[in-house]
Amino acid sequence: MFLNRSIIGATFLRSCLVKNSSTTKICNKIKCSIESRPFSADIPKTSYEHTAEAITNNENNTTSEVSKSNNESSKSGDRELEHKLKVLMLEAEVLRQQGFLVPDESYMKDDMWQHLVELPTISSRKKYLEFLFKLSKKQEHRKIKQVEKQKKLDEFRATNPLEGLNVLTIEEHASQYGLKYNNMFLRFYDTIINRTYNHKLFQAMMFGQKLVIDCGYEQHMTKRENSYCAKQLMLLFAENRFHSDPFDIHYTNYNRNSDLAKLFHKSIPTLYNPEFPANIHENSYLNVFPKEKLIYLTPHCREEMVSFDHEAIYIIGGIVDKINNEPLSMAKAKREGIKMLKFPLDKYLLWGSGSGKSLTLNQCVAVLLDIKKTGDWKYALRHVPKRKLAEVIVDKHVSKFKPDFPVKKNNTYNTKKTWKPK
Amino acid sequence: MFLSKLYSINNFKYMNDLYYVIRRTAVYHSSQKNVSRKHISSDLLENAFDSISVNKPTDWNDIHDFVLNHEENKENICNKINIDGLIMKWCVQNNKTSYAESYITYLRQSDKEINLATFGLYLRSICQSNLVKLEPEKETEIIQMCTDLKNGHPVLDSITLEDIICALSLTHKWEDCIPLLEEVKLTKTISTRAYSFVISAAFLNNNEKLAWALANELLELDREPLSMVYLSYLKSIKKLEKGGNIVEKLEILFDFFKRNGLICREDVAKELLLYRNTSNVLVKFSGFCNVCKTKLTKMELTDDEFSELKEVFLKNVIIGQDIFIKSDPLEMGQFKEFVTNLGKFDVILDGLNIAYSVGTNKGTQVFSKLVASVISYFVQQKKSVLMLGRTHMNKWPKSNWNYIKNNCTIFLAKDISQDDPYLLYCALHSGPKTIIVTRDQMRGHRHLLKDRKYKMLFTKWLGQRQYELLTFNKNDKPIFRIPPHFSTIAQNSENIWHIPYKSQDKNNSINDNYHKNWVCLKLEK
């Protein structure tokens, strides 16, 4: 509870310190980048502008490097590939002219072309282009909205010069409120928050329960699935860190050269630093932990988890199966002779039709964290998205039903009290 | 007294809350926006052509204005880049060749740069309208356009290339298509349409060798040629001198149908009916043709084909890439041992498929009774029965389960293994006469066979051996859908051929789900 309060305080204070709206944008940028870099010991603590510059420069550098290397691999290299790329560029152009949903030429980046070259069929390319189109439209709309908002504010300030000064963004208001830019609260830096969270993880590494994420399914997933998986791994790490009693997470079968690992590393740049609170193993969990303690959590087995075992080491398969829904994790556990269990999803929840019963990796970890803390499945399974569940409503006809004995109107158990003048 | 009353009332309140009704809702919102985006252009054009009639070239300007400035086009889905392509596409989809022509002349007159997509779609519309006969002026136009396109662009994309291929194949320069096909292969598999156009061009120009080679290439991709291929083959036959030659040529085509298990469409059948001694036949369930008074035959698999299918099935379907996905080696070993000691059975039952035929929520008492009654039906006919299921069936009520156990042989797979690959393998092992009782069409397992040849063998075999449980009558006797006494494949007895075709009107009821529409031909040499 105390920690939670301190987080709010910290974010509030951070926003208080920002002076004008142009820096808020940069600040947002830092915020994003810092949140994705949980252990930001390498960020200097001087001023926000400074770090902002450093980070944006850094980002620019890395992206330009990436694009350069992509350029080299996709545009140079053998002639065949170049020819194919040209054909595909023309194909995209023709699709655009035929009225398919294809983003603008200017939106297409090198890595997108690279992905297009790798896709085997025209229908898969169409789908990918449509996906990019939707993405581009989303960004476009967001930009338009931002500009409109700013315009409105400017207009208002121009027309009402006196009142206009009083119309402030919440950051501006917060910084001016009180003792002329002074504040009685102690300032919390992001690094401090980071340290408190990481401290919890270090505690867990010493005394906490272990949890294994099996990252050995990289070659079974498509590129898109791999990127989703990497994102879920990042969210999972954050979710675990925020919890009051986190797991000690071990990433096993982790191949640093795989797509998955590269994407995961991109979202957590300090991941491979020696002081970073994550355990990365290149070999299997069988080499790290005693086999009899391991339990593989897979949705394809029949046996349901009844209660949480605080001694066991649970394994979650790091796999996003959008296309291929073969029971890979079950097959693996069967081959290695590990005990299998699944969440009691049918026992505690009423499922709606439509979307399946699959959970993301971060949801799985959230459920495990809560069941470990409370032992209450109903509470733990609140992490299952609401849209997947059947909507439960009280039938009107049933609520109209009246008991066949008279009920006094002013009953003690009638909670609604109406006041009437005497 | 009061307490009890209160308690009961509280109880009532609680009960009231318990009366939940579950409403199931599907999630639409994410897909809806996308659908509207896809359809907005065709809807707008539909409206535009309804309100504006195109007579003069300037009318096209009105259509442009209507579509581009329409309030539904807020997101700019229709824009200056794709409006030409969209209009052409609309013309192709609605088969309005005159509009397509007038639009291309309008574009040429207005000095606008015509983009690739518009050219491609215009070619497509020409192909559509001039399939049967190409006028000489159109031919020169096509050749001119295609050479311009090829010369104007160092590389061409697969979509435009396919349109060029289709258009060129109608002209006398059809042989230029073949190098283009190779170019398409670089970025995508060639569409059935492009293949069919080239094949029919090859037939019409008497290059049969190339045509059949391409047709087999298409079949290897697990696609079937369009009707136009057969039609142009028949057309090429007609050009030949009358006499024995025609019969031979027809036999080649029928043999192609027979070997590849193809069923042609009604338009091809109509063309076939123009020949002498042919008639349109509705075959009865017994397979008796009432015109030539012969019976259609059952095409049995040969022993070699059968054992080959068995082997491929074990390798591709049960074991696949990873045995652990469907089973495990221990179970596989048990199964192999079980199979080697296995005699021949008359009937093989898919236990759980029968049990769940009334729905999965009925309880084990019902399930076991269903299976037991199906077994008793076959046992009364003195047939040997094998049943496959999963181990959890052991927990079924003892009275019925003991009856099942005593009257048939049983193999139970683990609860987390798949049982139907085992079922199919047992049936294949037990020999060509064995009946399978299941409602599963086994499409997924068929797909895993990969090779077209084995897929065909599999459907041929299963189509003749599968009993599907429909219902039970009043005396608890099962009613099955029985396979017909003939196979739906082009077939001949000496010089009388029977060719099945797909009829447009489908009024087959569920109970007689077999192929009825046939062409009966008597070929005289």
Automatic annotation (TrEMBL), chain A:
What's any one GO cellular component for it? mitochondrion
Name where it's found. Answer: Mitochondrion
Instruction: Report the residue ranges that make up the SAM-dependent MTase TRM10-type domain in this protein.
Output: 197-391
**Main localisation, per the record?**
mitochondrion
The alphabetized UniProt keywords are:
Coiled coil, Methyltransferase, Mitochondrion, S-adenosyl-L-methionine, Transferase, Transit peptide, tRNA processing
Top-rank taxon, per record:
Eukaryota
Instruction: Record the organism.
Output: Sitophilus oryzae (Rice weevil)
Q: Does the keyword Coiled coil apply?
A: yes
| Name of the protein in question | RNA (guanine-9-)-methyltransferase domain-containing protein 1
Q: Name one GO biological process term.
A: mitochondrial tRNA 5'-end processing
From the UniProt entry, list the residue stretches annotated as the region Disordered.
55-78
| Residue stretches in coiled coil | none
GO MF entry, a single one: methyltransferase activity
Which InterPro entries does this one have? Answer: MT_TRM10-typ (IPR028564), MT_TRM10-typ_sf (IPR038459), Trm10_C_MTase_dom (IPR025812), tRNA_m1G_MeTrfase_euk (IPR007356)
Where are stretches of biased composition, namely Low complexity? 56-74
TrEMBL record, chain B:
Keywords (A to Z) from UniProt: Hydrolase, Magnesium, Metal-binding, Mitochondrion, Nuclease, Transit peptide, tRNA processing, Zinc
Known CDD domains for this protein? Answer: PIN_PRORP (cd18718)
Please provide the Gene Ontology terms (biological process) for this protein.
mitochondrial tRNA 5'-end processing; tRNA 5'-leader removal
Query: Which Gene Ontology terms cover its molecular function?
Result: metal ion binding; ribonuclease P activity
Xref: InterPro entries: MRPP3_PIN_dom, PRORP_C, TPR-like_helical_dom_sf
Write down the required cofactor(s). Answer: Mg(2+)
Q: Where is the PRORP domain?
A: 285-520
Give the catalytic activity: Endonucleolytic cleavage of RNA, removing 5'-extranucleotides from tRNA precursor
GO CC, any one term:
mitochondrial ribonuclease P complex
Leading EC class: hydrolase
Provide the transmembrane region boundaries: none
Where found? Mitochondrion
Q: Which family does it belong to?
A: Belongs to the PPR family. P subfamily.
Tell me the protein's name. Answer: Mitochondrial ribonuclease P catalytic subunit
